Task: inverse folding
């Protein structure tokens, strides 16, 4: 066991970790934005809006992320001619784009489910109070429902963030050099199998628990007005 | 589009392998979960600390890293340790075993939390009443707490199973012939990756759909006699 020589690989691995964070962060951001309309569609009374959202969420929550990644990255090759004609092939040829695309769709489906639960959990009295003030439609949603739902959703959303960070390790399988990708390349080069994978695991654990702390703080800030002690 | 060119049976064989590796892992996860929950609720500091380290490390590490660590790392580690002691051994894991053990180990950590919550949800008075009747600690566990904990844990365990069965797709990385690997072979041979990966995803959807129906039946059965749940 030689943990000291591993330290010279640490900068490379941190580069990989940076790519992991980039892909995770970008997918979470896009997924979050998309999840707001999707969760509203899912809650809609109109079947034409509800069913597509329901189908999308069912598919992306019911199949493994690995299949989704392969379907987008390798599967797009089957439609190469069609994609070339509409000028999208350059995107689907690129592993980075496919990774962000797949992770975004995946994160959006899970986030929309969290939002759906949170929106349903907003107390009826809050909504009635908002209506009594003459708010309706978008204003009611923006001022009353959404802020409240966000607070309710926060703990579950924190879990989703951690889940996606770990799931992002799968992008190494479609050739990206994220933390896991760098680790696997170093293992192939140095044969220091367990040393490098243990170091990789330690880096993931460190990032995960940093995120846990950040979300705890965030939750405290958002729920400041609810604290009784002072 | 769905011309399978004779790869249909191969994919179905992959599906049964997926279910087999998933079920083996789930059994292991449940056993580990019960042991873990017992350790977390134990009076012994060592047991509590061990369980805390186990759940923290497992839940903070991606499944892929744990799988690679177990499948490639552990044999190398054993060989290195053996050569230090002056022995020469070659160790290779069977992919089925490595996959089932890794997934069992990972989801055992999640099951630990599920069982811990379930045991905590049983009123203390129940244990105290059973002890007052002169039951031994073992009998209290078998006749009083365990049956009730199982009922409370069922929805949580269902969730663990749903995540676990999707995670089995990872085991294709270590060459186990489950759905994903079969799809990959078929995709390579026919140059129709989209068709076969889509089909693989439908197989997973089918498994989760059937699982949720089974779960609903199990929950209904477990709740008989409890009244409104």
Result:
């Amino acid at each position: 066991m030689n943990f000291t020589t591993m330290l010279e690989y640490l900068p490379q691995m941190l580069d990989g970790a940076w790519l992991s964070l980039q892909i995770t962060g970008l997918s979470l951001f896009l997924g979050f934005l998309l999840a707001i309309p999707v969760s509203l569609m899912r809650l809609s009374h109109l079947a034409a809006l509800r069913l597509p959202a329901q189908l999308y969420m069912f598919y992306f929550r019911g199949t493994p992320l690995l299949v989704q990644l392969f379907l987008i990255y390798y599967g797009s090759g089957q439609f190469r001619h069609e994609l070339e004609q509409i000028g999208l092939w350059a995107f689907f040829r690129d592993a980075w784009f496919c990774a962000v695309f797949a992770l975004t769709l995946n994160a959006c489906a899970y986030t929309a489910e969290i939002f759906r639960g949170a929106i349903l959990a907003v107390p009826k009295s809050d909504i009635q109070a908002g209506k009594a003030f003459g708010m309706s439609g978008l204003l009611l949603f923006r001022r009353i429902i959404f802020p409240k739902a966000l607070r309710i959703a926060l703990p579950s959303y924190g879990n989703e963030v951690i889940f996606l960070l770990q799931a992002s390790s799968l992008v190494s399988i479609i050739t990206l050099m994220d933390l896991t990708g760098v680790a696997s390349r170093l293992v192939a080069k140095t044969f220091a199998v367990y040393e490098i994978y243990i170091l990789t695991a330690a880096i993931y654990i460190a990032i995960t628990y940093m995120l846990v702390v950040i979300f705890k703080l965030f939750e405290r800030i958002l729920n400041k007005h609810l604290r009784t002690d002072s | 589009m769905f011309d399978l060119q004779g790869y249909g049976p191969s994919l179905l064989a992959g599906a049964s392998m997926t279910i087999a590796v998933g079920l083996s892992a789930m059994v292991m996860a449940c056993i580990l979960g019960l042991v873990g929950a017992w350790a977390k609720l134990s009076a012994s500091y060592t047991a509590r600390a061990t369980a805390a380290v186990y759940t923290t490390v497992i839940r903070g590490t991606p499944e892929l890293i744990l799988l690679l660590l177990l499948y490639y790392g552990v044999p190398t580690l054993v060989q290195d340790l053996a050569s230090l002691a002056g022995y020469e051994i070659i160790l290779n894991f069977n992919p089925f075993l490595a996959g089932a053990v890794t997934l069992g180990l990972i989801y055992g950590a999640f099951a630990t939390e599920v069982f811990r919550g379930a045991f905590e949800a049983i009123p203390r008075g129940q244990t105290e009443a059973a002890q007052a009747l002169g039951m031994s600690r073992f009998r209290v566990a078998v006749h009083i707490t365990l049956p009730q904990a199982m009922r409370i844990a069922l929805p949580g365990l269902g969730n663990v199973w749903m995540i676990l069965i999707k995670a089995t797709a990872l085991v294709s990385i270590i060459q186990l012939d489950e759905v994903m690997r079969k799809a990959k072979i078929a995709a390579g041979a026919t140059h129709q990756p989209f068709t076969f990966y889509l089909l693989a995803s439908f197989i997973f959807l089918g498994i989760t759909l059937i699982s949720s129906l089974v779960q609903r039946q199990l929950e209904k059965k477990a709740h008989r006699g409890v009244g409104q749940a």
